[in-house]
Design a protein that fits this description.
Structural class: mainly alpha
Largest sheet: none
Strand content: under 5%
Shape: elongated
Order of helices and strands: HH
Distance between the termini: 25 Å
Helix content: 40-55%
Number of strands: 0
Radius of gyration: 16 Å
Number of helices: 2
Length: 82
């Protein structure tokens, strides 16, 4: 099962998904962020959930590519600190 069976992989993937979810909320809010009562919250949360799901799927697809972890590129490592 490799990386997908490691809890640190899922922790890093979850962190990315939360960040993507927050980005989806901000994207959905757009310029209406001043008046929070007029926002279409079901649609915004739907878009944000799609962002989070996409992030998790991309982490799974990236497993085993490049460096260790859910990121295809970059310095992130799932190894124990020395």
């Amino acid at each position: 099962m490799g990386e997908l069976g490691h809890w640190k992989f899922w922790l890093a993937a979850f962190e990315r998904a939360v960040k993507s979810f927050a980005g989806g909320i901000l994207t959905g809010m757009g310029s209406n962020a001043i008046n929070l009562t007029e926002l279409d919250w079901p649609q915004i949360l739907g878009v944000a959930s799609f962002y989070a799901l996409t992030s998790i799927l991309l982490s799974i697809v990236s497993a085993g590519v490049g460096n260790s972890g859910p990121s295809s590129f970059g310095p992130e490592q799932l190894k124990e600190a020395a």
